[in-house]
């Protein structure tokens, strides 16, 4: 296996200092694996008073393995395997319920979904292509849905996102890492073209490596370091939870209509739904937009007529940060020495947290798999002259 080493990472790596900005899934899992691989001098800086205030704590908690992009699909499979068999020292129950997923397709989207299903099956994921008649027997509210068939993946499901996130952080701390909350980064100190320290309002932390796992703020952190201009955009997405519905079965799987971009799953005796809206939004806290509820109502009426007129009990929104090609951004910055990106997870963080953290830690320590690292490299956004 080839080593991928930064020019300023020399000598005994166990004595090096690493500062990670962000305690969401990207930063927490990276800290977990860095300490797992022997690097104890790790500090995680989180701007909020607790972890998971933003994207990592405001999502649908779903684990999904079949996705169209091959590089992301490989990391999703690895991440799901991690959740299916957690390390023996994992400190908190994640409650991973493998209720499965139904990915629905119409005549236009079926070929692409079938191809993704075949690749997943070749990689060992148990999937089955099923007719709409069969799916309706399993989930009766799919009657009248304008789809032809779907892909059934029984090993997908729902996880306790808060315990999962805290598990990464707890184990990192147990191995020597430090997590500083309410520590917003104000300045990144650069000397000799390399990152040397990170400053908050109260402290300065020396750093041989700075990991940018700042989620929606990743672009801002990059600018603080005068790193490469990676085109990352946060997008707002809404989720809605209904009141209790006596006809909802808690055993129903995730149902995701890929033809019309809408999903639902059981939640608290009712349903959790999302219209899969995607609106650019600046980094920060989000509020719900009434237009998203209108979008949901329109899509539900069109795609799942049996679910019309649902009584909504609560709603929220969160940010999903993505690069233009929707692939992750994991790797050394091509312009700023010692600056490492772990960003652009685009809503996949729950599933891929462990595989992203492992790849990031291996890349930082010089033991990454070159093909996988290349697929996520920030270098792809730099124009070659």
What would you say this structure looks like, in words?
The relative contact order is 0.21. The two termini are 30 Å apart. The protein is α+β, with helices and mostly antiparallel strands. Strand 10 and strand 11 form a beta hairpin. The chain has nine helices and 20 strands. The protein has two domains: 172 residues, 3-Layer(bba) Sandwich (FAD/NAD(P)-binding domain), CATH 3.50.50.60; 143 residues, D-Amino Acid Oxidase, subunit A, domain 2 (D-Amino Acid Oxidase, Chain A, domain 2, 2-Layer Sandwich), CATH 3.30.9. Helix content is 28%, strand content 25%.
Q: How many domains in all?
A: 2
Regions with little confidence, pLDDT below 50 for 5+ residues: 1-8
Q: What value does the Rg take, in angstroms?
A: 21 Å
The number of helical segments is 9
Q: If you average the pLDDT, what whole number results?
A: 94
Q: Tell me what the CATH architecture of the largest domain is.
A: 3-Layer(bba) Sandwich
Return the CATH topology of the largest domain.
Answer: FAD/NAD(P)-binding domain
Structural class: alpha+beta
The CATH homology group name of the largest domain = FAD/NAD(P)-binding domain
Total strand count, please? 20
Biggest sheet details: 9 strands, mixed
Shape: globular
* N/C terminus separation: 30 Å
Q: What pattern of helices and strands is seen along the backbone? A: EHEEHEHEHEEHEEEEEHEEEEEHEEEHH
Query: What's the CATH C level of the largest domain?
Result: Alpha Beta
User: Strand-residue fraction?
Assistant: 25-35%
Q: Percent range for helical residues?
A: 25-40%
């Amino acid at each position: 296996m080839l080593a991928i080493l930064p020019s300023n990472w020399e000598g005994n790596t166990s004595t090096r200092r690493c500062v990670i900005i962000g305690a969401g899934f990207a930063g927490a899992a990276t800290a977990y694996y860095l300490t797992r691989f022997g690097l104890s001098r790790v500090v995680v800086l989180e701007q909020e008073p607790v972890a998971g205030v933003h994207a990592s704590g405001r999502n649908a908690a779903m684990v999904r393995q079949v996705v169209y992009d091959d590089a992301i699909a490989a990391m999703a499979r690895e991440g799901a395997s991690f959740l299916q068999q957690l390390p023996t020292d994992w400190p908190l129950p994640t409650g991973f319920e493998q209720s499965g997923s139904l990915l629905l397709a119409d005549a236009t989207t079926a070929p692409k979904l079938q191809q993704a299903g075949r690749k997943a099956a070749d990689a060992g994921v148990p999937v089955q292509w099923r007719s709409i008649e069969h799916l309706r027997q399993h989930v009766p509210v799919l009657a009248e849905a304008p789809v032809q068939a779907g892909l059934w993946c029984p090993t997908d499901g729902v996880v306790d996102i808060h315990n999962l996130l805290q598990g990464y952080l707890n184990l990192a701390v147990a191995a020597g890492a430090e997590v500083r909350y309410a520590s917003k980064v104000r300045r990144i100190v650069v000397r000799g073209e390399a990152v040397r320290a990170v400053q908050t309002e109260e402290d300065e932390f020396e750093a041989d490596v700075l990991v940018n796992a700042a989620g929606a703020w990743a672009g801002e952190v990059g600018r603080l370091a005068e790193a490469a201009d990676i085109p990352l955009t946060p997008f707002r997405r809404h989720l809605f939870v209904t009141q209790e519905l006596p006809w909802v079965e808690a055993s129903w799987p995730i149902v995701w209509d890929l033809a019309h971009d809408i999903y639902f799953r059981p939640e608290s005796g009712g349903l959790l739904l999302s219209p899969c809206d995607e609106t650019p939004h600046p980094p920060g806290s989000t509020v719900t937009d009434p237009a998203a509820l209108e979008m949901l109502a329109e899509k539900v009426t069109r795609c799942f007529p049996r679910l019309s007129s649902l009584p909504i009990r609560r709603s929220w929104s969160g940010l999903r940060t993505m690069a233009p090609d929707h692939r992750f951004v994991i790797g050394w910055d091509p312009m700023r020495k010692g600056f490492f990106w772990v960003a652009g997870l685009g809503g996949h963080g729950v599933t891929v947290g462990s595989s992203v953290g492992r790849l990031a830690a291996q890349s930082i320590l010089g033991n990454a798999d070159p093909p996988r690292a290349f697929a996520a490299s920030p270098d792809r956004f730099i124009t070659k002259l």
